Please model this.
Amino acid sequence: MDGLADLHRVIFRDEPVPGCAMPEVGHLRPFEIRSAEDAAALREFGIDVVVDGAASEIPIATLWIDPGSRKRDLRINLRGNATRARIVLDQPFGLSGTVLIHGRDCVLVDCGHPERGSKVVVNMWTDGCAFYWGRGCTGNGIITEMKGDGQRVIVAEDCMFATDISIRPTDMHAMFDLASKEVLNGSKLGRVILEPHVWIGQGVLVTKDVRIGAGSIIGADAIVTRDVPRRSLAVGAPARHRRSGVSWSRQLTPSKRDMEQVEQYLDDICADREA
Model:
């Protein structure tokens, strides 16, 4: 579909992430937003688009929406320099909450969920930012701030989030050495990546340049400042690796067969990369 062919490259660049297939787009319905009046048609999907400023000759945003989408309770604020934003919302349910786009050429891809929504606040303050929400993910309260051109937050499929969680690929403000005038807290990679089937506990902060491996668990109130290996438990502030060879289930009392299926899933989905 026109306008979507390069999305995979824009989001993932040359950094492969398992469990991050792009949505099938043939069934999606496009909506082009050039003015506040164009946003009215989206209200039937529970999407409130707020446009800051006068009508534009070029698209401020284009949305591709599953025509079977239920009401999402999603507010999208197009402010400041927002132009040419691309937003893909697949499946009946998905992200709810608020999305702020303040920069040019920003991208949001929500692969959706067949049964339930997820509460988020996504703020893209600068140009070329990207947010990817994998298929089957669930969350009860996540905020992410992107402030730096080209910053990205990538959440692979089947991740689970508790409440009061922050994902920040930026510190938002600079810390510098007074003598050398060198900025000390810049982001090297400009992204945060969660691989498939990651469980993030209540009150967790995930900071810039972090990659959390598939199947892992982050304990409540942890501050994640470094990569977390696959199939492991990390807890504390800052978070430390505490145990390997573990994963998790959405069920409170999973059967042995349920646990074997999780293990097989992780084996299969990470087969193309070293575990």
Summary: The helical segments are 7-12, 256-269. The chain has two helices and 22 strands. The longest strand covers residues 95-101.
